[in-house]
Amino acid sequence: MNVFKFGGASVKDAAGVQNLAGIVQDQGKGTVIVVSAMGKMTNALEELVRAYVSQKPAETEEHLLAIRAYHEQIIHELTGNFDRVYQTLDNLSNYLKKAPASTYDEVYDQIVSLGEIMSTQIVAAYLAELGVPTHWADARQLIATDTTFREGQVDWEETNRRISHAVPKNAVTVTQGFIGQTPDGRTTTLGREGSDYTAAIFAYCLNAKSVTIWKDVPGVLNADPKWFDETVLLEKITYQDAIELAYYGATVIHPKTIKPLQNKGIPLYVRSFIKPEAPGTVIGNYEQHLLIPSFIFKINQVLISLHPTDFSFIAEDNLSRIFGRFAQAGVKINLMQNTAISFSVVVDNNPDRVPDLLELLKQDFRVSYNQGLELITIRYYDQSTIDRVLVNKRLLLEQKSRYTVQLVVKDLG
Ligand code: ASP
Ligand code: MG
């Protein structure tokens, strides 16, 4: 059997759902379809959480209405029985009537997860309407995680036990990406863009023949066309290269996706839902690594520099304190570099997390930071590609390993 994953862009409107159905109908029963929240609904739900937790009833209501209207619009353009979607919207509305009763991250997961619940309820109802034997599976009851809200760590053994019984052979299974559940039944999410990872978890547990991620790009490109004019489609990529590219921030695949597939040698296809007949990219066991440079571009970066306030050096004791603070604030490090008396770290400038991190760090260090930066990573670089990307940029920090260079820059244009 095969696992298909459809991201938010592929189901952003009724036409997207119809297109998905077209792709799925050609497949055999037993296929598992993992679907993300529709369009930008995860962002919209995040805004809703922010308004709700800060107890702003008017704003909360406004976000809720927009989310409701968006889903209703899609439903109106499709046929099917969508009662369960209305039920989910009502449940959400009731939940918001009570005051927030747990931590921000826990509330976040209870609310944001509903984006995936609704998208799959719509997709499943529509497929059923078309006469496709459809099984809606609740991923919360299948993906077992710990209680790390917003970044749930998967309990593989338990998840494996559950998933191996959960997929009927005589139907197409439709399930949610991105979500799971703690042992005591509270919903968790697996980290933003985590639906790819869910697809890999299902594939691993079911010993799938392949995973296909359907995207709005022709496959994995050597750079994001949003930032680069001349991009090249990579037809074949090794697991190793794919992990590295994803790790450094190539957003086309979630970084946790590859390892489980590599362990079982399950190929991962990345294909265009706009042009489903095109072959796209396949990631698998190949001898040959990439032959051309690949670029990963991240904006909105902040470079944080730490200096001990006493005369100590940046050595093991200070480093372990620093890493502890980052873990405590839930901030991921994109790049780091140290000298004897300073430690520099580049992170995404996440407004939910970075201000708290800075406060924590200021307890032990003199902290300076530089915002509005870009982080450019080039895998399989050479000097001419470096020179090319540095045109009109000021270089603040550079780090080279054998295959990868990372450049922290300020745009001068
Ligand atoms: N809907 C979630 C997000 O946007 C998960 C995903 O799309 O993979 O982060
Ligand atoms: Mg999404």
What's the gist of this structure?
The protein is an alpha/beta fold and 413 residues long.
CATH H-level superfamily title of the largest domain: Acetylglutamate kinase-like
Please give the radius of gyration in angstroms: 22 Å
Q: What is the average per-residue confidence, as pLDDT, rounded to a whole number?
A: 94
Q: How many structural domains?
A: 2
- Tally of DSSP helical segments: 13
What are the segments in which pLDDT stays under 50 over at least 5 consecutive residues?
none
Structural class: alpha/beta
> Helix amount, in percent?
25-40%
Pfam family, one: AA_kinase
Catalytic activity: L-aspartate + ATP = 4-phospho-L-aspartate + ADP
InterPro entries: AceGlu_kinase-like_sf, ACT-like_dom_sf, Asp/Glu/Uridylate_kinase, Asp_kin_monofn, Asp_kinase, AsparK_Bifunc_asparK/hSer_DH
Family: Belongs to the aspartokinase family.
Summary keywords:
413 residues, Carbamate kinase, VC0802-like, 6-stranded antiparallel β-sheet, 16 strands, globular, binds aspartic acid, binds magnesium ion
